[in-house]
Design goal:
4 helices, alpha+beta, single chain
Length: about 210
């Protein structure tokens, strides 16, 4: 797990082994239509679509707490960071992008700055990765649940950050406004859990 390519990304090193138990993860990012149904059922405000429409577009403008609560409402949860990377890399393969080995293949699998307009796209509009998951590189950044604050050194056990003690959360996958490097499968971005952005969404796991 981590920057298994150059080993130079400080947030994604040292490279380390990670073991994940069997899990399931959503094939698609959560859509506006799906989130709107949850928000209506629970009396929450609808996220702003900035006039670009709702429906099957990847939902954006939701906090980490909104994403957590959505997943929990349906008996699901946010994926851990290790699960997310394992899934994006098609079961732990050496894939720099989710479904592509190089930036030359990114256009076929991801919505990012070079091939997008300034809003999220309908989910599944590009090719999936090798295990059938769509948009894990690009379209919208995705909130994850449990994560490592720093990666463990060789021989050390990973220590997940206590989410009750930290306001910081991790985003994965890059988005439609991102340069290609931000959509790499190992790339990590951090922000406050109550931040909203038109580039941040999520998918659920169990």
């Amino acid at each position: 797990m981590g920057d298994v390519f150059e080993g130079e990304n400080e947030d994604a090193t040292p490279v380390h082994d990670a073991v994940v138990a069997p899990f399931e993860i959503a094939r698609y990012e959560t859509t506006f239509a799906q989130y709107d149904a949850f928000a209506t059922a629970t009396g929450r405000p609808l996220p702003d679509d900035a006039g670009y429409g709702r429906g099957d577009r990847a939902v954006a403008g939701v906090t980490w707490y909104d994403a957590r609560d959505y997943c929990a409402f349906y008996g699901l949860r946010l994926p851990t960071e290790a699960e997310w990377e394992y899934a994006a890399r098609s079961g732990g393969r050496l894939h720099r992008f989710a479904g592509a080995d190089s930036v030359g293949g990114l256009d076929a699998v991801g919505r990012y700055l070079a091939n997008s307009v300034m809003h999220s796209f309908p989910v599944g509009s590009k090719r999936p990765n090798a295990i059938g998951l769509f948009d894990m590189s690009g379209n919208v950044f995705e909130w994850v649940g449990a994560y490592y604050e720093t990666y463990p050194s060789p021989g050390e056990a990973p220590v997940y950050k206590d989410l009750e003690q930290s306001a910081m959360r991790i985003l994965r996958g890059g988005g439609f406004k991102s340069e290609a490097y931000l959509t790499q499968t190992f790339w990590r971005s951090g922000t406050l859990g109550d931040v909203t952005s038109d580039t941040i969404g999520f998918r659920c796991a169990r």
